[in-house]
């Protein structure tokens, strides 16, 4: 069972999932997001610069001014640009938080970071980023983009254009007015999660100081901050601890001026756990329906197809997305049922609630078709949080046999943490899988042991189609809220 968080964070998770479903969730990433990947934060980036000036970065809090001192001393910003190239052009692996944020259907990413981790992780997850790191980039739109990445302070590959020192920050609202305008609009229309900004990060203050969103137009946004510990750091006395914690309280209150609610975590390691909880809850709104049927056993063909059609339609009407691989004898009914619900009320239901993934029938690029199908299944099932299994048979060498492909989809679902719900009453592979889960729920549904009793009801042939449908809907609603 997933870790339970504070009531405040649990409420945030539900609200952010709602915003994901409505397509209005956004992310604003600071240096802390990249630190887990091995990149330095602002103090470490400026450490060598401070030493060259005869100063100590540990004693300085206005690091943007420190950068300006270096530019003044050197009569140019070439040294700072070199620091960016040296530090952020090196290859780094994305953190767990990067991976989760790239998998979520977020279409707007803002960052003050110079590295390419956000856009690189999007590409690794088969998403097309449209990267904007200079004003001229805002004039064009990349075709077939899945997300926009606004790098408002520049990119490591163009270090001479990066925003680094105080005079650049002071003139930003003039030199990069289009970025300020775009961000102001997004702060009104989207819900932002600020992640990777420390208490002393200079970027956050400079960014927010340039935004003047009227109070009546502000949305509620969220920011992760690590709670200042009550135990003293090295060489701290009790008064220093009280001072540090009081300053954080005031900082939290100040963020509310911009509509930002602070989410305090005890450790930074809690942040990817919270993001994973968001992903799990979001995925529970997507149902993968697996199955194939050359015949329907105890069911009359029309009754079986009507059952699948009605079940798919009911899931869409209940607000779920349906994913289907167009399995023989099953896929058409799934698709028709979903479309029936969608077109019955297009203002309430969306075509986005139906995700069709027909299997490729011809090997390409020299890949074995079996390997291609396995990869295809893995990507398709990863879109969901719950998997339903119906029927599952095919014509084999000796007649009708249970479909091995449905078994593979079950195995993939279990391996990916997708909750399997085999509807055993439909027979064939679905019945075989239902009996596996009922006999050993600790292996197949360790976080939802109660599911075994519900699957027994779905394994009883005396249960009518309407009762089966009602039971399935009750199960998915309980899993979604678990």
Notes on the structure:
The chain is an alpha/beta fold and 482 residues long. The chain has two domains: 7-274; 284-481, Rossmann fold. Helix content is 48%, strand content 14%. The strands form three sheets. It has a seven-stranded parallel beta sheet with strand order 3-4-2-1-5-6-7, with helices on both faces. Helix 1 crosses helix 12, helix 8 packs across helix 9 and helix 15 crosses helix 16. The longest helix is centred in the middle third of the chain and has 18 residues, at 238-255. The protein starts with 6 loop residues before the first helix and ends with a helix. The model has no long low-confidence stretch (mean pLDDT 89).
Characteristics:
482 residues, alpha/beta, seven-stranded parallel beta sheet, Rossmann fold, 2 domains, five-stranded parallel beta sheet, 20 helices
Q: Quick summary of this structure?
A:
This protein has 482 residues and is α/β, with parallel strands linked by helices. 48% of the residues lie in helices and 14% in strands.
